[in-house]
C-alpha cells in the first residue's frame, strides 16, 4: 500500500504497488515461454485473443482419474456434437478442477509443491499434436494448474508442442463450468508486458441465452 487517505491537493487517494510472477494465478503462457522464437505477450495478434470458446468436458473422466487427459476422440466428439470445427477457436478444458482451487492438496494432488507427485488433468500430447497438424486454434486453456497433466509436469510436452507453434496457453482458468460447450465468445485480456513470456490475464466469456450444453444429451 502506497497511500490510503488524504494526500496531495487535500484529496483522498488510494494507491498501491504491484509485484508478482507473470506465471501465477489465472495467467497466459505466451509462446516465448518455452520457445526461443515464440511470440511474446505484446506480439500476439489481437484477433487471436477474441474468439469462439470450444469447451471440452472431461469432468466425468477426471472424477475417476486425476491424471485424465483430453484425447483426440474427445476433440472429435466435440465437433460431432456441436456440428462445428475447432478451427479458429480457443479450446478450454472443463475438468471440474477449478472447484479445488482453495485446497492445495486437492488442486495439486500433493500436500507439498512437488511436481514429481502432482496429479491433475490436462491435454494429451497426442491431442496437442493433432490440433497443430489438423486444426488452426488460437489458444488452449486449462482449469487446472498446467496445460500438461500433473504426471507430465516435469517434461511439459504439451507446452512445447503448442507454444512452439505460437498457440498461447491459459492456466488456472476460473469458472469454466459456467461456460457452454459451444456458443460463447472469449475475450482474453493479458496484461500487455513488453517482451513478456506470460502475464496475469482476465478472461471474459459472453454467450446467448440458449445454452448448448443440452447437446450433450444427444450423444
Automatic annotation (TrEMBL):
<dbReference type="GO" id="GO:0004061">
    <property type="term" value="F:arylformamidase activity"/>
</dbReference>
<protein>
    <recommendedName>
        <fullName>Kynurenine formamidase</fullName>
    </recommendedName>
</protein>
<dbReference type="Pfam" id="PF04199">
    <property type="entry name" value="Cyclase"/>
</dbReference>
<dbReference type="GO" id="GO:0019441">
    <property type="term" value="P:L-tryptophan catabolic process to kynurenine"/>
</dbReference>
<comment type="similarity">
    <text>Belongs to the Cyclase 1 superfamily.</text>
</comment>
<dbReference type="InterPro" id="IPR007325">
    <property type="entry name" value="KFase/CYL"/>
</dbReference>
<dbReference type="InterPro" id="IPR037175">
    <property type="entry name" value="KFase_sf"/>
</dbReference>
Amino acid at each position: 500500500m502506497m497511500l490510503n487517505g488524504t494526500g496531495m491537493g487535500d484529496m483522498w487517494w488510494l494507491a498501491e504497488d504491484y509485484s508478482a510472477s507473470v506465471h501465477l494465478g489465472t495467467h497466459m503462457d505466451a509462446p516465448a515461454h518455452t520457445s526461443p522464437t515464440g511470440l511474446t505477450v505484446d506480439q500476439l495478434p489481437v484477433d487471436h485473443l477474441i474468439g469462439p470458446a470450444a469447451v471440452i468436458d472431461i469432468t466425468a473422466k477426471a472424477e475417476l482419474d486425476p491424471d485424465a487427459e483430453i484425447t483426440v476422440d474427445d476433440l472429435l466428439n466435440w465437433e460431432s456434437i456441436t456440428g462445428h470445427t475447432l478451427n479458429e477457436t480457443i479450446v478450454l478444458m472443463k475438468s471440474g478442477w477449478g472447484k479445488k482451487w482453495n485446497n492445495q492438496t486437492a488442486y495439486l494432488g500433493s500436500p507439498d509443491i512437488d511436481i514429481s507427485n502432482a496429479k491433475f488433468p490436462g491435454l494429451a500430447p497426442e491431442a496437442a499434436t493433432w490440433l497443430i497438424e489438423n486444426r488452426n486454434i488460437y489458444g488452449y486453456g486449462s482449469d487446472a494448474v498446467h496445460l500438461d497433466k500433473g504426471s507430465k509436469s516435469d517434461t511439459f510436452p504439451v507446452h512445447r508442442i503448442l507454444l512452439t507453434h505460437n498457440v498461447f496457453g491459459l492456466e488456472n482458468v476460473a469458472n469454466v463450468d459456467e461456460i457452454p460447450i459451444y456458443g460463447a465468445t472469449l475475450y482474453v485480456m493479458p496484461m500487455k508486458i513488453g517482451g513478456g513470456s506470460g502475464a496475469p490475464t482476465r478472461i471474459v466469456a459472453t454467450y446467448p441465452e440458449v445454452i448448448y450444453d443440452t447437446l450433450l444429451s444427444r450423444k
